Each structure stands twice: as structure tokens, then as C-alpha cells.
Fold this protein.
Amino acid sequence: MDLLVEKLDGSRYYLSQYKVLITDFEESAPSVTRNSKQIDQRNGNIDFGGWHTDKTINITGYYRADDMEEEEMLREKLYALLSDPDGYYITQLKTTPSVAMERPGETSGGYYDKLSDYPSHKRFLVYTEAPEMELVGNVNGTLLYKLTAEFKTMKLPYGETPAVDVAIDSPYKDVPVNLLTGTSNVQDYTMSGSGWTMGSQSKNSRNFPCTPGASYTYSAIVKSTTFSCYAEIIFFDSSKKRIASPESSLGTDIGIRKVTLVAPENAAFLDAHMTLQNPPDSQTVVFNSEKLEQEPTVSPWSPNPADPEYSSWYYGGNVYVPYSGSVPCNQLEQGFTVQFTATGSASSLSFKIDDTELISTSAVAVGDVFMFSGFSYTQNGLSIVSKTNKAYFILQPDKPNRITCNVPGTVRIIGFQNLYA
């Protein structure tokens, strides 16, 4: 085995550089301290809770020196490395043979050359009071010394992964915007009539402002129909005079109907809807999942950002913090920061990780950047602590740490770490 020592300035050292072979690496469980009070004439104690204080790691290793001068030089370097009052990170490098198995006597010698080290999944921020060196004896003309050290954790009594920034995105963040409001992929819309009958579940499907030269796609899913129908886009000029409305695929089949058109140069508005193709008597078509998008192709249905259900659809129960530690990670103790960048707007903000809700009464606009550290709360760099409920987050090892919010946006966890007992 080996031991990696990482100074706080980022410099890295291996004890094998100092001829040390680590033979034992033992870590204790986090020690527990409790706060209790004994009251006279009352049985037992009043318990006010407990907490972890520190963790102890003991290592043992051996090194050889050709003479006393070399041993003194190695000892001084090891003292300088390990007796740093500022502390440092240590990582166990475990050893595994590169050859999994062989027949007895198949090879001989070179065993240590076949060993390879791989790092543990965690490291510890520690200090040691006094590493000890003890002379074991003279082995084949060289001096053999035993190194022992007891490390204690400094900041948190846990093993931890290096701090990184983690971007947490919605699986729907790249789905094109539905320009129609009030549509649904659950609630059906029924349209009946004779002659040329047009209709939409949306309230803004008529006289929608458009951009000349842009591609627009309108789609809907037909659930049932008694007559030939099709998806239609009609363009109008600035005086609301009809310009063009080519027919799309006709038929009585169920399933998706779509039409893609490029807005003419003099187009200013458009209508998007389903159309019954001039039935002689009353006929009916049932459809849902309407979507109008400024794209040349059809994308999956989505609500409009102004729809009440947009946020629940956007986060969809699938946006979560990928925490895989074995103990809770408390924001006030570990120090991670939640960065939220709004892609929508609202009169206030409600941001949740599982059951913990952080509320801000400040209005939210597109592009606003919020930073929540548990100690400070800012919006675009300005403090909004007086407008929040001062909540802080704890990442749990046995929960999904699911993110929900009333405003769509992107989330980053700055200084994210997994913690291990």
C-alpha cells in the first residue's frame, strides 16, 4: 500500500517517494458526543442530541536507509511532510496484484513489481501531532525503521470526495417551447360541426404573431374522428388578410397530425388549428397534445411556460442531486452552494430539495441568478436574505434529493462532495 498526501496548495506527495511501504491503514468510526443534563431527583438524563466530533486514522509503514545519515534525511523529510499545522488530505492507495492467479511455481521473483496501487474513493482532511519512527533492526546491511502515525480529521469527521461543481439539468431543458397556451396531453378536446370546421384547445392559436422566413410546425394527436381532418397553419399579413394555408395530410386515421410551413415575407400573424374537411353534416374529431413551435420538425408535447403545470412538467420528478455518500451532507457544515439560474419568471421563488423548501418573496425574471449557501442568499449578486425564510439544505444518503421549483431553470451545486462515515 501507499499513502497520498495532498497539501492545501494542491501539491501531492507519496510516502513511497520517501522509501516508505505502508502495511496498515485503519480508520475508526466517527466518534459521537452527546449533550445531556441530569436533574436532581429525576431518573436518567435529559438528552439534547448528539453529533460526530472526529475520526481517527492510524497508519503503519516501514522504510530502509543505507546508513544513519540517509535515515536522518528521510526522517526530517517525513517530519516536515506530516507535521504540517495547516493540515492536509490523505488518501489510501490500496494494492492489488496485476496477475489475478497463476499455477504454483509458474513464476518466481518480482512479486512486488506486479503490484499496482489504486486510490480509495474517499480522502480525509487531517493532522497528526507527532509521527513516530522506531528502529526495528539491521536487515542485510540496511537500517529498517517502523513509521506509525495517528491522524485526526480537522473539518468534518468523515471521508470525502474532492469538491466539484455539479450541473443538474432537467431532461426536458432542450425541448422546444410550445407557443400555444392551455394545451394538454391528458385532457382531450372535442370539435364538432359541418362544413369547414376549425378549432383548438388553446386560447392563443389565432392571430399569433409570426416572423417572416421562420419555420413553424403545428402538431396534434388525433384520438378519434368521424371524417377526414388535418392540421393547418394559416398565415395573414399585417392587415389580417389571409395569405396562404396549404393543406397537410388528410385522413381519418388516428395518431399524430402535423404541418410545417415557412412564414411568407409579408406574414405578420398565423392561425394554428385542426380542421374538418368540409363535411356535409355534423362530424366530430377528438384530439389533444397540440403544439406550435418555431422549428422545422415535430418535438414531444410540452406545456407553455405560462401554463400552471409547466414547472411540474419541467422538473418531472427526474431532477435530483446525485448524492451517494453514506452520511447526511449538511450545507451549514460542509459548505456547498446552490446556484439557480431562472429560465422563466414568477412573482416569487419556491425552491425545494425533497421536503426542505427555500422561499424568496423577490420577483423572478428570466436570467436571474440566485445563490443559496445557507448563510447568504443573493439574487444577481445582491443580498435578499430579508426576503427569504433562511432555509438550508441537507443531502440525505437514503433519499432521492429531488429538486422541484415553481420556476424553470438550471441548477448547479458548487462545492459538491460525497461524505462517508
